[in-house]
Amino acid sequence: MNTQQSLESYHRVLTARNRLLLGFVVASGLSFLLGFSVFCLIGRERVVIVPPIVSRDFWVATDTVSDSYLEQMAEFFAGLLLNVTPNSFATRSEHLLQHVAPNAYPTLKTQLVEQKLELERRAMSTTFHPSSFKVDRKKLLVELKGELKILVGKAPVESQTKTYRIQFSQHFGRLYIQQFSEVPHG
User: Fold this and answer.
1) Which of 16, 114, 151, 186 is least surrounded by CB atoms within 10 angstroms?
2) Looking at the whole model, is its pTM more than 0.70?
3) Where on the phi/psi map is residue 126: left (φ > 0), alpha (ψ -120 to 50), or beta?
């Protein structure tokens, strides 16, 4: 009788061991498959970033961005720089400088100081309303064309069609301003 019970006990333990071994093999195989799929996806991830005003969908990857993202960020940065009053300029320019590439910081900072002095000297405000965008995603370059209005007090003084070029650089999915300049009409 003890032999019969010992054999039954041995078969139960053997069956339990075989089930655990099968579970271990399946779990190991799934872990290997998951690790391999993560390895294959390295560098293909896209980060979705929400700008202050979302007008269209866009995407951001480690080494490239969508055209719509470049347009929206160019419009946002142009608004920071061109929709200003003498009182709001300091705050808006400091916010803009947070998004400037380190190597372009001194140049753009000098440009902003000159613009601030001009605004204060003439006691003027400016507003810019973009009407069209020309995007080169490979070069991270955006040209935006629109109407720049210059006001003194609340009285409009001048209204011109202007084109601005914003050169971006990208580092680990983040967009930085490399250059902001007016395109001369000719």
Assistant:
1) 186
2) no
3) beta
Neighbours of 60 (CB within 10 A): 19
Cβ atoms of 83 and 127 closer than 8 Å = yes
**Residue 172 identity:** F
* CA distance readout (Å), 22 to 25, 72, 89: 5, 54, 68
In words, the CATH class of domain 63-183 is alpha beta
- Please name every residue paired with 126 in a beta bridge, in sequence order, or none if there are none: 84, 150
Residue 7: band (very low, low, confident or very high) from pLDDT cuts 50, 70, 90: confident
Contacts of 86 (CB under 8 A, 6+ apart): 116, 119, 120, 123, 124, 125
Residues 6+ apart with CB under 8 A from 112: 81, 93, 96, 97
Amino acid at residue number 7: L
CA angle 26, 32, 38 (to 5 degrees): 135
Q: Where are the beta strands (DSSP E) in the chain?
A: 46-47, 60-61, 124-136, 141-152, 155-171, 174-183
Closest CA to 82 of 18, 125, 127: 127
| 8: helix, strand or coil | helix
